[in-house]
Amino acid sequence: MSEEKNEFDIPDMVEIPIDGILDLHSFQPSEVRDLVPDYLEECRKKGILEVRIIHGKGIGVLKNIVNSILSDIPWVKRHRPDTDSGNWGATIAFLEPEE
Questions:
Q1: Per-residue pLDDT tens for 56-75?
Q2: How far apart are CA 41 and CA 47, in angstroms?
């Protein structure tokens, strides 16, 4: 897929692999509200029902945004910090399968 360039020579679209791991480090907080639900929906379509969202440690802004988003999506069964990897810079979301 070709990417069109805007006047600042920045790609208009970034293709994200749908593999169950979403790394938010390269995104602005303002982009996350649309990105996370869209990504999770694509995971559901592929049958990926456990998704790791990497938001980083920082001061917790992205973590709070991610948790708020996940709490608002009815087909997210639950979510928790990724304690399996010993890193609180990620959250695991457990999704209900598509009907």
A1: 988 888 999 999 999 999 99
A2: 10
Residue 53 sits at φ, ψ, to 5 deg, of -110, 115
**Partner residues linked to 94 by β-bridges:** 50, 78
Whole-prediction pTM value? 0.83
Cα–Cα distance, 40 to 78 (Å, whole number): 13
Mind giving me the DSSP string for 54-95? E--STTSHHHHHHHHHHHH-TTEEEEEE-GGGT-TTEEEEEE
How many other CB atoms sit within 10 Å of the CB of residue 73? 16
Structure tokens at 80: 């928790």
Give me the amino acid identity at 12. Answer: D
